[in-house]
Amino acid sequence: MIIDRYPSANILDQRGHWDEATRRVVMDRVHNVPPPRFFDDHERSVLEAVCARVIPQNHRPPERRVPIAPWIDQRCMTGEIDGFRFDDMPPDADAWRIGIAGIDQAADARFGSGFLTLTGDQQDAVLESLRVGRPSGEVWSGLNVRRFWINIVMRQIAGIYYAHPYAWDEIGFGGPAYPRGYVALNHGAREPWEAPEVRQ
Predict the structure, then answer these.
(1) Which of 156, 154, 94, 160 is nearest to 130 (CA)?
(2) Scanning 4, 16, 100, 106, which has its CA 20 to 30 A from the CA of 46?
(3) How crowded is residue 78: how many other Cβ atoms within 10 Å of its Cβ?
(4) How far apart are the first and last CA of the chain?
(5) How far apart are CA 141 and CA 6, in angstroms?
(6) Percent of residues in the chain assigned helix, strand, coil, to nearest 5
(7) Nearest in space to 123 (alpha carbons), one of 54, 43, 44, 45
(8) What is the rounded distance in angstroms from the CA atom of residue 95 to the CA atom of residue 49?
(9) Residues 126-130: contacts with CB within 8 Å, 24+ apart?
(10) Where along the chain do its domains lie?
(11) What is the DSSP letter of 18?
(12) What are the phi and psi torsion angles at 7 (to 5°)?
């Protein structure tokens, strides 16, 4: 069971204190989720299943789940990058396509079926083979699995998740402080607008 450590947190209640540019960016993450344009239906389904295993959200009501796959799709469609690329890695969009095919190959090699038909535990086992750098499948002979797992999968999934205000509520992050600024300058004190942590 996942314990809600900040049950009173609702960072969107603070949006009136943000400047217009910040408010627009944050609210877009909630209300303007990009439509699928890059991945085909199967690739998108595998990507969504991978996101759900990396950061499970079954404990959240559906309307409070952070959409991750649509923002990865958007990154791939627009060619958004982090400003660097390893010389032995393809562009992120290509890496995702190759990696998704490789996840299906690893699933089939280990369990005789594609990733989407596996149980949660089996999916975890396939993803664990990527994490330790030993997945099955010919795709992985041409793609650096460790860099794909760490710098593409984990970096993007975690980055998108923790850029969302619903995730901020989960960790008790008080959100953008501009232009209001911080006032609790003593060590460990909460800002007046931050939710208290409930320890159980």
Answers:
(1) 154
(2) 4
(3) 12
(4) 12
(5) 45
(6) 55, 0, 45
(7) 54
(8) 17
(9) 127/50, 127/53, 127/54, 127/103, 130/103, 130/106
(10) 11-171
(11) B
(12) -65, -25
